[in-house]
Write a structure and sequence with these properties.
The complex is a heterodimer of chains A (281) and B (317).
Chain A lengths: L3 H22 L4 H6 L1 H11 L15 E4 L5 H11 L40 H14 L6 E6 L6 H12 L5 E7 L2 E2 L2 E2 H4 L5 H8 L2 E5 L5 H14 L6 E6 L22 H9 L9
Parallel strand pairs in A: 1-2, 2-3, 3-7, 6-7
Antiparallel strand pairs in A: 4-5
Helix pairs in contact in A: 1-3, 1-4, 1-10, 3-4, 3-9, 5-6
Chain B lengths: L9 E2 H15 L3 E5 L9 H6 L4 E3 L4 H12 L4 E7 H4 L4 H10 L5 E5 L17 H6 L5 E4 L3 H12 L5 E4 L4 E2 L15 E4 L4 E5 L3 H14 L4 E5 L2 E3 L3 H11 L2 E8 L4 H12 L4 E6 L9 H7 L4 H13 L2
Parallel strand pairs in B: 2-3, 2-4, 4-5, 5-7, 6-7, 10-11, 10-13, 13-14
Antiparallel strand pairs in B: 1-8, 6-12, 9-11
The chains are: A alpha/beta (281), B alpha/beta (317).
């Protein structure tokens, strides 16, 4: 197991990868990606029991489903640096004939991706199906998901949230990335989400919080605690507070960088705040 | 002229239910999901026999489609069941992203298609579902004609790896195809050889096409009748060969003429062998309440409408 300093270096490199991917094609979603660098690193480097010799069925391993597919840059970086595909392939992000589509897909056969996502609100349903299949297969491994907070405005989530609790899907850990931002502005302004803890609890979930989702140790500890809460009859929800654009000072605390790439100068500034650790691709 | 005998009218949805029951016994990977319409979809036996493989999702079709996609991860073969309207239009984006684009082995099984669901009226009578589903890359689209064929198709699609839309209906219709038939996805079935006009029908309009052929025969017109149970992939060879032989075509389906079987046939013929074609289908409209027979009469979806269309097609040769 890598120590916390090594994992922190991993996070820093992932941030560089995010910035470089979106800069190269002048498109993509850096804000939400940067905010979830610690989450993905913790999940793939420390928490999940997973197999990089990718098999779609994923039997006898933990599974992860990214519901808010637009944060593909962080997903791709962590998958590549975890060994699912060559890191150099990050160079092909959003280019024609690439396996690294703007939003993740299974269509081009990219290892590590088990469902297309991008059209929001569908990931939890898919995860529920996979979780139920695990139970049928007597496979004790877990299913993890990540959802944007704005994404919870999609009604399908609440169908899934109701189903999960009503059917005791207790091998599921769903994390909500609470960065409070969406394309048109803050979630508070666009469509307030209200008290999410109360909502999930009212639906019958076991809810916990990660106070600072950009504190790597807190994320690791939170995910590990969530694991201890599985198998007890309730699905587990983690409300994870993050800062959109985290780690790049001019991208933080704003929705402006939700879906906008940095220019050359901004890239250099962002990279200077995140020095190379594991080697650029 | 060969006589096709109605062995006793049955609903096609019961063919689905009975096929699913057999699959439950023969294939342990088959799972079923239903959105609060277990009785309507005739899934009760599967549910009773395999409660651990039956998933009641409630009135939440979007979640059902997503869950079905997820269940394929882990090797399950999910069959979803609800009305055709809620199986397609309501969840188009879920099917598009989580099933079709993701290439998942989900079988979307849809009852109560078309106007013949009857008295419930237009809110439930989808006439656009074949079009919606056939436009999705990689989606196989099947519309079966009777109880026996629906049962055979239900079993056949479990052995096929890929997303399938299986469409059937509510009312009892003539059951005339063979018991325990061999169902080949994408393979047209010739019911009559003929020389004057080709009638290509799908769903329960195949029975109407048979009645039309008999009537045309009495008028001295030789009609070739083809049962197209698989609209996508279409058996283009069969369509082209028959059009070359007869020189004109009638398509018959319980669907909008936009986007249905007729359009698939027209595209095939336009590309390979341009042929006069008449469309027995609904005329870009919604349905309404009524009995199935009344609605088929009013919307021109019966043997009489096919005869009229055949005569018109022949004149255009």
């Amino acid at each position: 197991m890598p120590n916390i300093n090594e994992l922190q270096d991993f996070v820093t490199q992932v941030r560089r990868d995010i910035l470089r991917q979106v800069h190269k094609v002048n498109s993509g979603h850096p804000g939400g990606s940067l905010g979830c660098a610690e989450f993905f690193t913790a999940l793939y480097q420390e928490v999940m029991d997973h197999n990089t010799s990718f098999n779609m069925d994923g039997k006898d391993e933990d599974l992860f489903f990214l519901s808010n597919g637009h944060i593909s840059p962080v997903f791709y970086s962590v998958l590549a640096r975890s060994g699912y595909f060559p890191v150099e392939e990050l160079n092909t992000f959003r280019l024609i004939d690439s396996r690294l589509q703007g939003h993740p897909t299974t269509h081009e056969g990219l290892p590590g991706v088990r469902i297309a996502s991008g059209s929001l609100g569908q990931g939890m349903s898919v995860a529920l199906g996979a979780a139920q299949a695990k139970k049928l297969n007597k496979d004790a491994h877990l299913v993890y998901t990540l959802h944007g907070d704005g994404e919870l405005q999609e009604g399908q989530n609440w169908e899934a949230i109701m189903y999960a609790a009503g059917n005791n899907v207790d091998n599921l850990i769903s994390t909500i990335d609470l960065n409070g931002q969406q394309i048109d502005g803050s979630t508070e302004k666009v469509l307030p989400l209200g008290n999410l803890r109360a909502k999930f609890e009212a639906f019958g979930w076991d809810v916990m919080e990660i106070e600072d989702g950009n504190d790597l140790q807190q994320v690791i500890d939170g995910l590990k605690e969530a694991k201890t809460r599985t198998g007890k009859g309730k699905p587990v929800c983690i409300l994870m507070n993050t800062v959109m654009g985290n780690g790049v000072d001019f991208m933080m605390h704003t929705h402006a960088w939700h879906g906008k790439a940095p220019n050359d100068e901004q890239l250099e500034k962002g990279l200077s705040q995140n020095p190379e650790t594991l080697g650029d691709y | 002229m060969k006589e096709y005998i109605n062995k006793g009218s049955k609903d096609t949805r019961s063919g689905f239910g009975d096929g699913l029951t057999e699959l439950g016994q023969s294939n342990e990977n088959v799972v079923a999901l239903c959105a609060d319409l277990t009785g309507s979809l005739k899934m009760d036996d599967f549910k009773a026999n395999h409660p651990e493989r039956f998933f009641q999702v409630g009135i939440a079709e979007a979640n059902m489609i997503g869950m079905a996609a997820g269940m394929t991860i882990g090797g399950k073969i999910p069959f979803t069941g609800t009305f055709a309207n809620f199986s397609t239009g309501r969840v188009y984006d879920q099917i598009r992203q989580s099933v079709a684009y993701s290439g998942k082995n989900v079988k979307i099984c849809a009852s109560h298609a078309g106007v013949t669901l009857g008295e419930d009226g237009a809110t439930h009578q989808i006439l656009e579902d074949i079009g919606l589903m056939k436009m999705l890359p990689g989606m196989t689209v099947i519309n079966t004609c009777d109880y026996n064929q629906t049962k055979a198709a239900t079993k056949a699609i479990a052995d096929y790896d890929g997303p399938v839309y299986l469409r059937f209906g509510r009312p009892k219709v003539a059951n005339f195809t063979e018991d325990n038939q061999d169902f080949q996805i994408g393979k047209a079935v010739h019911l009559y050889e003929g020389s004057d006009v080709t009638i290509i029908a799908t769903g329960h309009l195949v029975w109407e096409a048979i009645q039309a052929a008999v009537e045309l025969n009495e008028k001295g017109i030789s009609a070739e009748v083809i049962n197209i149970h698989t609209i996508k992939p279409l058996d283009e060879e069969a369509v082209i060969a028959s059009a070359k032989k007869t020189g004109c075509v009638v398509t018959a389906e319980e669907h909008n003429f936009l986007g249905g079987l007729g359009e698939s046939v027209a595209r095939t013929l336009a590309s390979h062998h341009p042929t006069p074609q008449e469309f027995v289908a609904t005329d870009d409209c919604f349905g309404e309440s009524g009995t199935p027979a009344q609605l088929m009469e009013k919307y021109g979806l019966n043997a009489a409408a096919i005869v009229k269309a055949a005569e018109k097609a022949i004149k255009r040769k």
